[in-house]
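Lab meeting prep.
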Amino acid sequence: FATKLEYYEPELHIIEQSAEQTRSIFRDVISPVVLRIAESQTNTTVAGTIPPKKLPSSFSNNDEYGHRIVETYTRYGVRVAVVGFQNAPQLVRYHLRLEQGTRFEQVVRQSTNLQIALALENEPVISAGPGFVCFDVQKVRPDPVKWEDVVNHPDLRNKSPVAIPIGIDVSNKPIIADLADSNTTHVLVAGTSGSGKSEFLKSLIATLVNRNQPGNLILTLIDPKRVTFGASGPSTYLSHPIIFNIEEALQTLITAADDVDRRYDILLQEGLIKLSDRFERGRTDIPYHVLIFDEFADLINAGRKERREFEQVVARVAAKGRAAGVHLVVATQRPDREIVTGQLKANLPLRICFKVTNGVNSKIVLDETGAENLLGRGDLMCVRGKGIERAQGPFISQEDFTRLVGRA
């Protein structure tokens, strides 16, 4: 048996799905929702599921819960000890020491058993840390990370005008990415519906607007699904109205790539290395330009010619974009191999992954599994040249976003 996914943009196009892809979608996306609906309607537990034992929202009894983790591992013949924990906005990270004879693979292999025994809504995310194993447990009520708190953090003040907060990490410190840095100059963002991807893109835009005058920054927003930015009003920060059409989106990207070459020629003529050097000398006639493309998979799926042109444009911007002050942020709900190719990933050094459907998607974005076990609602992992880091992304309401971006 097979299925077809229908996307309305507003024209209809159909993407064939194999039997295995269909089973995966039902198992990972549809079935959990159906079970939750059934339970909420009947107020009982659906047969075959275990009612979750909720942890205290404050996690005030971390020591006792740590003892439960050790006790459960012991039951399965894995000897560990809890040597500490950290309270993060969305989780508590326990530090496990491996006792003599215990291997890291044994700890990871029991993650499903730990989920069942501890009645966790998701499998715990288990990763290697410096001298210990990280064992992440979801909070019942995640602590919100408000955009206005993060954007005013001292760590952001001394960065370039195009620096952005990715989120708050498990040690409650902000993770900052500077688009003017070669390691984070262009961004790939992935995550399923409800993962927090769209909220992150809005917080990114709000940060750039908040830290720049209209003359110093222009934004190009591309939103084929008309969902993420569709409700935003006009703004002097926008190069032109929000783009919804795929053909227009591709042409806009090509024009931006041509502009990169023009800017680079100007820098060479003036004997400067990068755009920020011009700003330091009081020359502000060439602004930073950030292009944000939500759901670029629609362009990739439009046809082989469009895919090839898109990858060529990304490569052109990636080569000189940092020095020229032109930066790409591209996002997708469907980070499979057909969408996120090796060439594309190589040109987008900062990779941010919210909850994805399966481990294969996680590995495509991060080169490691784990993002399939994230909690959603802003829980993320990112790669910025320092290994995989976990954080809670900042949230800005639609009302605040519209008011800020459309204020001028």
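Slide two material, second protein:
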Amino acid sequence: MTTMQKRADTDAYRERFEEFERQRAAARPAWLVPLRKAAAARFAELGFPTTRDEDWRFTNVSPIADSDFSLPRFKGSELTAKQIEPYTFEGAGTTLVFVNGRFTPELSACPELPTGVQVGGLAAAFRTDVPVVKAHLGHYASYEKNAFTALNTAFVEDGAFVHVGSGRVVEQAIHLLFVSVNNDGPHQAHPRNLIVAEPNSQATIVESHGSIGDARYFTNSVTEVIAGDNAVLDCYKLGRDSDAAFHVDTTQIQLARSSTVTMNTITLGGALVRNNANVVLAGEGGDCTLNGLYMIGGHQHVDNHLRVEHAAPHCNSWEYYKGILNGASRGVFTGRIFVEKGAQKTDAKQTNMSLLLSDQAQVESKPQLEIFADDVKCTHGATIGQIDRDALFYLRSRGMSDKLARSLLVQAFAREITDQIALEPMRARLEEMLLVRLPQGELLRDNS
């Protein structure tokens, strides 16, 4: 991409930003103004990444850069609870619904929470100038090197705000549901989520994305997760965007001393999806687990990009990602484990496995280790292959059809990840969604 092309791309978003600033001038705290403007300026300098950038070598975002996405004007009140029902699940104590990036109270379910727990829209927290938001927002997900994070920060307006006070335990899951709808043509949305778990607290957070109809849109979401000393967070991300959608998601996780964070990322939809997961183990004794599964077909493109930084000693990290690809789809996995000089006694493991169901599907896998400490245990590995012919022959010899046998093997491949989901209602819903995508999957469901 030439400098002139890059300027044209950023100029379109600069105009959108100026429009955004005029419309939202009154609904913002004073401290947010310079942050937005600095991020907008940084995006103009960076421009959209190209395949010449190492971190984007296998993912071409020109379909995003070359498209004209307007700011959304959809009113959430036009949706009904029945329309979003397919994206909900039992077991969620609180469900916050966001339509085109904006919190929609009339579709949300917000029962009374324990004292010291605050859950709501980020825009409301801006209006009341909640100190926790000012103390944490933008301090972890840096916009200096990431153009999409810069773009999100420039347009930051709404999203989810979850604050779990010190020593508080939230028994039921908190579901953050983002729904996209086209009403005025293709649109862009930049939801910003802030999740703060104070010391000795515990919570389960589910962030899911979906669409009403076959909408074409661009979602650029950023989530900052801060786990205080001894905090425990069980996090889930579920992507069911329309097959015409573009979605860039960035999750920045900061762990303090002896904290534990588990994140399961499941991607099923989207034309082009990029999942960035960045973790910093900043306190001694922290534990982080990143599990991922994507199942795609057609011409879908999913890129999972992980960076785990061990900045303190005696920390553990595990990464286990699997991909199932059919048609002419393409998957990318980049996993980088970075161990700083003082992070002795680090234990880090990284595994990426991909199952190709067609000759046209492609996967690029790039696990990496950068180690600057001498007393560590770090391993990584990657496999790419097709269905085991011996296993297929065995099942066929027991009377199964070819389609059913293949579906059973694909299901078994996926279940290594789905079985890690501790939230039973979500696990059951996910397994059902996977079976629907498999030939004769209903037979597997009936016999499971």
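Talking points for slide two:
Confidence is low (pLDDT under 50) at residues 1-8.
The CA atoms of residues 264 and 305 lie 14 Å apart.
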